[in-house]
Amino acid sequence: MAAEPAHTEMERRLAEVREADLRRWVGAFAGLRHGQREPGALAARADLLVRELEGMGLEASREPVPYAGRTYHNILAEVRGQEAGLPSLLIGAHYDAAWGTPGADDNASGVAALLGAARALAAAPLRRTVRLAGFSIEEPQDAWDRACRHGSRHHAREARRRGERLAGVYILEMVGYTDPTPGSQRIPVKLPVAPEAGTFLGAVGTRRSRHLLKGFREAAARHAPGLQVITHAVALRGFLLPMSRMSDHAPFWDRGFPAVMLTDTAFLRNPHYHQPTDTPETLDFAFLTQVTRALAAAAAET
């Protein structure tokens, strides 16, 4: 039997990304769920993430993350690839929220995109294994918590200790908010293209992750042509631009893994950042759908 054309296989994958599912996931994962202040609610979201992944036929596991006398959990799963010798690709998003906010964009949108990509990638064979990670306690846990990103730091440290190889890491950090108003977008650095309106997706990497930036941009152009992607590679692991390190990609940069943050640029665009008004009603689900499709395509083609 002849192999199915690659474009047909990709179309079938991306048809698994449905706006209705993304809306449902954002609604389910939004709500107060700060690690130290609402540990029960955060644990319930961990359970929900396990159920959703297992509902796709994936085997989910819990990676303990000890912090301040409690144990939190990263939720892990993988879509097995056909070529066992290839390094895995990791897709991650944090599922906790800052204190006092329902965190629809930050970061229920990222969790929804993670789940949407997982479903699409499980729909057809992959060359390389794609690992999926829902990271816990990314947000500051108290006024003295300057490090943050505890779940991803633990995972990256353990991956390096075990000598794991990763083809790359895509981190989803707020990927659902747009504002077409001219002047709604702030840009902290001089870029070749600097839109005045907040309708694009940012992809931030380092020189080590330039292949991921290129692969994502090209996959988006082919499979999510309505999505404008602006990429930027920072020097010195982002230490000259501290805001470029403000998510779960930074621990992977620090341990030598190629990683990219995908973002709607957070507080540079979204006025609801870390506010009680960060609710599902503020999000652009057509945009989130395009982001998810671009991610699934990039992961499948890496």
CATH architectural type: 3-Layer(aba) Sandwich
Number of helices: 8
Number of domains: 1
Oligomer: single chain
Structural class assignment? alpha/beta
**CATH class designation:** Alpha Beta
Q: How would you write the strand order of the largest sheet?
A: 1-2-4-3-5-8-6-7
Stretches where pLDDT is under 50 for at least 5 consecutive residues are none
Tell me the distance between the termini: 26 Å
- The CATH homologous superfamily is termed Zn peptidases
List the helices and strands and how they pair.
Blueprint: H1 6-15, H2 19-29, H3 39-55, E1 61-67, E2 70-79, E3 88-94, H4 104-121, E4 130-135, H5 150-161, E5 166-173, E6 201-206, H6 210-223, E7 229-234, H7 250-254, E8 259-263, H8 285-301
Parallel strand pairs: 3-4, 3-5, 5-8, 6-7
Antiparallel strand pairs: 1-2, 2-4, 6-8
Question: Could you walk me through the main structural features you see in this protein, from its secondary elements to its overall organization?
Answer:
This protein has 302 residues and is α/β, with parallel strands linked by helices. It has a single domain, classed as 3-Layer(aba) Sandwich (Aminopeptidase), CATH 3.40.630. It contains eight helices and eight strands; from the N terminus they run αααβββαβαββαβαβα. It has an eight-stranded mixed beta sheet with strand order 1-2-4-3-5-8-6-7, with helices on both faces. The radius of gyration is 18 Å and the shape is globular.
